[in-house]
User: Which sequence fits this backbone?
């Protein structure tokens, strides 16, 4: 399972990278705005900084909602760095753009996916990644994990190579449940990754080992 961090915060990206288990970064316009990164050039510069910190894939989202706009934006983003994956919204022109990029060998991440039908279309269009939003479905009392499970089943039926990128992950149990289902990738906040470290018995056990070591020295 690949671990991506879902943030535009450079300190958090660096911290996750320093753990040695980070496979990539996802961003979106809201996450950029949260870090105060606004304006086309600043956003582009920020993507370059992220690519200089991590080794893996970095999703960069287009703002256009029409085919031509997505193509010109996506081509510009893809040319920034080999690690860039063009993130496209799950709308009609997004699917058309996804197919266009797939034919050109440019990697894509189809985002804002909330149904298995949408995920099927993204796979048919040759998406590299599909991003079902788990937490946002849970927010409206709909089982987000069930969607991940359905997509896994459908993709397995036909051998689709599109990777299921479980997005809008909020906490460690989401990560564990997605791993059980067989999501290819998780993306979430730093806390959803570092939280996996914690167990009180580990802390108690380590304290006891160190205490006993001191007794013998
Ligand atoms: O990766 C998708 C993500 O950025 C959305 O997360 O927490 O805003 O639903 P959230």
Assistant:
């Amino acid at each position: 399972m690949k671990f991506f961090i879902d943030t535009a915060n450079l300190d958090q990206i660096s911290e996750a990278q320093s753990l040695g288990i980070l496979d990539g970064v996802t961003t979106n316009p809201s996450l950029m705005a949260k870090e105060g990164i606004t304006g086309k050039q600043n956003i582009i510069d920020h993507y370059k900084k992220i690519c200089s910190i991590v080794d893996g894939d970095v999703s960069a989202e287009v703002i256009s909602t029409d085919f031509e706009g997505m193509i010109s934006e996506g081509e510009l983003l893809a040319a920034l760095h080999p690690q860039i994956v063009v993130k496209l919204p799950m709308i009609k022109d997004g699917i058309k753009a996804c197919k266009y990029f797939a034919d050109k060998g440019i990697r894509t991440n189809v985002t804002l996916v909330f149904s298995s039908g949408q995920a099927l279309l993204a796979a048919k269009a040759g998406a590299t990644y599909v991003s079902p939003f788990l937490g946002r479905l849970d927010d409206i009392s709909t089982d987000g994990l069930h969607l991940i499970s359905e997509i896994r089943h459908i993709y397995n039926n036909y051998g689709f190579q599109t990777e299921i990128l479980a997005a809008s992950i909020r906490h460690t149990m989401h990560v564990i449940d997605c791993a059980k289902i067989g999501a290819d990738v998780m993306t979430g906040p730093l806390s959803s990754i570092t939280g996996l470290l914690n167990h009180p018995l580990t802390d108690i056990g380590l304290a006891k080992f160190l205490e006993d070591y001191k007794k013998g020295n």
